[in-house]
Design goal:
- With about 525 residues, the chain is an alpha+beta fold.
- The protein folds into 4 domains: about 110 residues, Aminopeptidase, CATH 3.40.630; about 160 residues, Aminopeptidase, CATH 3.40.630.30; about 110 residues, 3-Layer(aba) Sandwich (Aminopeptidase), CATH 3.40.630; about 120 residues, Aminopeptidase (3-Layer(aba) Sandwich).
- It contains 18 helices and 26 strands.
- Strands 15, 16, 17, 18, 19, 20, 21, 22, 23, 24, 25 and 26 form a 12-stranded mixed β-sheet that branches. The chain has a 7-stranded mixed β-sheet with strand order 1-2-3-4-5-14-6.
- The longest helix is centred in the first third of the chain and has 15 residues.
- The chain is globular and about 75 Å long.
């Protein structure tokens, strides 16, 4: 197998092989792969009517089976190639017969995990074009308000207006500097590439004008005879309702039965928006890695963190192996870390957790290289050093202390109140959000589910929730990992001590000043932040 880079001539030559496939995935289009080439470095190899796609991922290449007719033959062929190249075979699968066939033939040999952020949203064309029924009531209201406020018109993209189209695109990126990074620059360049080559690759698009000014644009191309891919959509925030209008107007002109509006990339606002249009199908994606890789990750974690049980480790890996950055040698992970999604001041943050290296491979720069790789995927990283001595190590990697806690070991008085255990994740999240201070690192819901499984979580009994504690008991001491309180903190803690029959405690509480160092951030942040549940 000799994989090669994409060229414009390849897109034209291989298009017949792609459009004959029945999968609705946007990743099956060479045009889409060519647009995102700078980000994912896709390579391809053709064997008869099968097209093998190789995409760079954080832990090495991943091979797509979506355009291969014989799963068993293709997997064996790729495994032979990986053995010669000394790389681990990893496979990208989608939720269809390919996944089922892979499971039937190789399920016992691989660990398969879902990549939710890569799931594609597929809609009925008629739903987006007509917006009929109760479920689209709010969308119709947005369009109605837009129409009452603005004198707008829709135009199909053409040679006549393409320069106006591109000018709006460039202006959108200039107006949203907080969204500009290496990947969005690839996106911007992709828009230019598609517009300049729209006749060659059957690209179509549209725009909305208000008093001559272009305020919204959209662009896409067919995946096959049944599915159309909307690749880009932009609108100025000064014109509320513009997204709903351009979405509907373009859908009305699409002749395909289904419309693929691609993935949400894990962006909370984008996910909410895509779900609000009630997708006909959520095309889920999975990655399969050899079970030996998964088992070595589990062993490295438990060998490094002696207090971890097999159950807690299984809970960690089942949720977050997808977020694991690792280095392997001879099919075994020798260094790894997990980067878990979080937010700080409404900004996305990657929280580094459970960094571990096998003893015989330490002091060789492996962890440094993993952190540098994580920086390529996250603009902001946070972590809590396992030991105070490691603060100096992370400072050399560009991290600065940014999170502070205070510790309490005593309370005043022994009055108690009625408290109750939280078992439901939605209640845990709701109470925590109610009491969480500003400038707090807030882990994703999936991480909080893991916390709820591992620790005891209590709040006030009754409707008024003024306190929250996450704790465990060890050697007669109540170790409170997080204590959030509006009032009556000491009474609440006394109630926990009574419940657990303990008289000693150690509790971490938010600091309003530069208290105990409890975490670091990259790039530097000179504020006083609260780390919250650090999962350490």
């Amino acid at each position: 197998m000799k994989f090669k880079e994409f060229e414009l001539s390849d897109i034209e030559k291989l298009s017949p092989l792609i459009t004959n496939k029945i999968s609705p995935s946007c990743e099956n289009t060479l045009l889409n792969l060519a647009v995102w080439y700078p980000s994912y470095n896709p390579l391809f190899y053709v064997d008869g009517k099968d097209v093998y796609i190789r995409i760079d991922d954080k832990n090495g290449p991943v091979f797509s089976l979506m355009l291969c007719s014989d799963v068993e033959k293709s997997v064996n062929k790729i495994c032979e190639y990986c053995a010669k190249e000394n790389i681990i075979p990893q496979f990208l699968l989608e939720d269809d017969k390919v996944l089922n066939e892979f499971n039937d033939k190789f399920g016992s040999e691989y660990f398969i995990y879902e990549v939710r952020d890569a799931a594609e949203y597929i809609y009925k064309q008629s739903d987006l074009a007509e917006l009929s029924g109760k479920k689209y009531h709010s969308k119709r209201n947005h369009i109605s308000a837009f129409t009452k406020k603005f004198n707008w018109q829709y135009e199909d993209l053409s040679d006549i207006n393409k320069e106006d189209f591109l000018m709006m695109s460039d202006e959108w990126y200039a107006d949203n500097p907080q969204k500009v990074n290496a990947e969005t620059m690839v996106e911007r360049n992709g828009i230019h590439f598609l517009v300049q080559n729209m006749s060659k690759f059957s690209v179509s698009g549209g725009l909305i004008r208000i008093d001559g000014k272009v305020v919204a644009i959209t662009l896409g191309a067919a995946i096959n005879e049944n599915v159309f891919d909307v690749m880009f959509e932009k609108a100025f925030s000064d014109y509320p309702g513009a997204y709903a209008v351009i979405n509907r107007e373009f859908a009305r002109r699409i002749k395909h039965e289904l419309i693929n509006r691609e993935e949400d990339l894990g962006i909370e606002g984008l996910r909410k928006a895509k779900l609000s249009y009630k997708p006909h199908q959520l095309l889920r994606k999975y990655i399969a890695v050899p079970i030996s890789i998964y088992n070595s990750s589990k062993k490295l974690h438990m060998d490094t963190f002696k207090g971890e049980t097999e159950n807690s480790t299984n809970g960690l890996l089942s949720r977050f192996f997808k977020d694991c950055f690792f280095i392997q040698k001879d099919g075994e992970i020798i260094s790894q870390l997990f980067v878990i999604s979080a937010t700080l001041n409404d900004n996305s943050v990657g929280y580094i957790y459970a960094a571990a290296t096998k003893p015989e491979f330490r002091s060789k720069g492996l962890m440094r290289s993993l952190i540098e790789k994580a920086k390529e995927y996250y603009d902001v990283l946070a972590l809590k050093p396992a030991e105070q001595s490691l603060y100096n190590y992370y400072e050399k990697l560009g991290f600065t202390t940014a999170f502070y806690n205070n510790e309490i070991t005593e309370i005043k008085g022994n009055n108690t109140i009625e408290i109750k255990k939280i078992k439901d994740i939605d209640e845990f999240i709701a109470v925590r959000n109610l009491l969480l201070p500003e400038n707090s690192l807030n882990l994703c819901d999936e991480a909080l589910e893991y916390v709820l499984e591992q620790y005891e979580v209590y709040t006030d009994k009754g409707d008024l929730k003024q306190n929250l504690a996450v704790f465990y008991v060890e050697d007669g001491v109540v170790n409170i990992r997080e204590l959030l309180s509006d009032e009556n903190r000491d009474v609440f803690v006394a109630s926990i001590l009574k419940l657990t029959n303990c008289n000693k405690l150690s509790a971490l509480v938010p600091s309003e000043s530069f208290g105990l160092r409890s975490g670091m951030i990259y790039p530097s942040d000179n504020g006083v932040n609260y780390l919250g549940l650090a999962l350490d």
